[in-house]
Amino acid sequence: MNGRYPRFEDGSGSMGKHVAVLMGGFSSERPVSLASGKACAAALETAGYTVTTVDVDRNVAETLARLRPDVAFNALHGPFGEDGTIQGILEYLEIPYTHSGVLASALAMHKERAKIVAKAAGVPVAEAKLRHRLDAAESHVLPPPYVIKPVAEGSSFGVLIVREDQPHPPQQLYGDDWPYGDIVMIERFVAGRELTCAVMGDVALEVCEIVTEGHAFYDYDSKYVPGGSSHIVPADLPKDVARKIQGWSLAAHAALGCRGVSRSDFRYDDRFGPGGEVVWLEVNTQPGMTETSLVPDIAAASGHSFPELLSWMVEDASCRR
Length: 321
Hints:
The protein has helices spanning about 30-45, 60-65, 85-95, 100-110, 110-120, 135-140, 220-225, 240-255, 295-300, 305-315; strands at about 20-25, 50-55, 70-75, 130, 145-150, 160, 185-190, 195-200, 205-210, 230, 260-270, 275-285. The protein is of the alpha+beta class and about 325 residues long.
């Protein structure tokens, strides 16, 4: 394998390093983060690191200043952990951390701005518009079918699919209890297969197909409920399609300024021929990190164990880049 993907055969990179695993937090993705954090902490201990788990609260800066770890492993998901906020705290404290930095994290978390940057880098994206949720509930912003997404949420929270035969937009957008912010992105619906591709450093790994059972798309239950989905790595694709997806994943990773690990998600509509249409949906700078999550599954297909994957991430950690 080419690029910055070293092997850690004997665990020597871990000797004496103290890693603080940041998890939990207070976004809607807290349960996902706790699962990622616990799995990462166990694997890093297996790899020989000294590990402290930190359930992130509003006093996290004080906690980290007291602990002074060599590296912070960021296992947070969603706002605060994924949008540049915790990254800024770690930069201020001068603690090297895993995954992307402040700017890349903030850009990637905002779906519409990430699409603008990716499109400028030559990555194919679907037509999309931003609207206040009340305006999006009043009349169709795009011809159905289309998808409504909170502009800065993860784990498919708040995603709504509007089918061709729906006479009006989803009325839950009017609700006083809508928890996902007032600005939503309305995006052209792309039929087809769910694909994803992980990038590590400057290497695009194998393309993975996500097969869901009984779900219209890769929603929260598909991601986190046992049996909700299966992963096919490498995906059964024409070679030129797989190469394009790998190239576009690298292009998005670089254009947004990501570092460490990221994961780009795609839809591939091959109903009318093997070339089909491939559309980039988003880049995830904090992908799930349990042993059965997508990125660990993809890395495993390339012969890299879960502890080895996490060791690479710890050794890649930095500030100010």
